[in-house]
Write a structure and sequence with these properties.
The chain is mainly alpha-helical. The chain has six helices and two strands, in the order H-H-H-H-H-H-E-E.
């Protein structure tokens, strides 16, 4: 798993290169994120960009890498293929990146049970 040194230390990993320690620490981190955010979309986003970014943006940060990572994780879990077109980023991700002034995430943190930013919030 990919753990930065600070996160590894937080979850008791002394040697990031030791597979057993790394996986155990990574699983503890994912459990922490799931307990903290109680939403698999936010957990994936926090694992990719750091939990501080979720609080900073109030949801999934509008970073192309993070939004793409969340999409890959969700599509994999649902057994859906990723789009293979060579289109550039479009829609909300492109617009928010261009503005770079938004303090709101792509997906809101609050539990609403309705679509937020084009995604069903669980």
């Amino acid at each position: 798993m990919q753990l930065i040194p600070e996160t590894a230390a937080r979850f008791g990993v002394q040697d990031i290169c030791d597979p057993a320690q790394n996986i155990e620490g990574g699983m503890k981190y994912l459990r922490f994120l799931l307990d903290e955010f109680q939403n698999p979309l936010l957990v994936a986003a926090a694992y990719n960009s750091g939990e501080g970014r979720i609080y900073e943006y109030g949801g999934v940060p509008p970073f192309q890498e993070t939004v793409g990572y969340v999409a890959k994780v969700v599509n994999f879990q649902l057994g859906l293929p990723m789009p293979t077109g060579k289109r550039k980023a479009s829609g909300i991700v492109r617009d928010m990146a261009a503005k770079n002034t938004s303090d709101a995430g792509v997906i809101a943190v609050e539990k609403t049970g309705k679509f937020v930013g084009g995604v069903m919030h669980f």
